[in-house]
Amino acid sequence: xxxxxxxxxxxxDISGWRTLRYMFAGVVILQGMQKNLPQGCTKRFNPIxxxxxxxxxxxxxxxxxxxxxxxxxxxxxxxxxxxxxxxxGHWIGCxxxxxxxxxxxxxxxxxxxxxPFK
Length: 118
Description:
The chain is 39% helix and 0% strand. It is an all-alpha fold. The chain is built from 7 helices and no strands. It has one domain.
């Protein structure tokens, strides 16, 4: 299971939105996945939240290994600094090449991943 979802579901993007959470909510709704998610979770929480590892892990009965790259291109371009959130174009260079990120941008990318997952 990709760890990306584990912490990015809570992260705000550069404009203050939870882009990744809303994107995956659309997937759950469009595909009608609610019926395939663990019932123990969907009875207690919004089915959309049961799609994310924070809730799904409790239902996994086999060994589980989480993996995540530091910052892959997709993660930055789509969830943390999507073009739709970069109204002034400050993230264009960083979004395409992490070596072009400013110190402030790197700090944002390495931000606190604490999430009171609700």
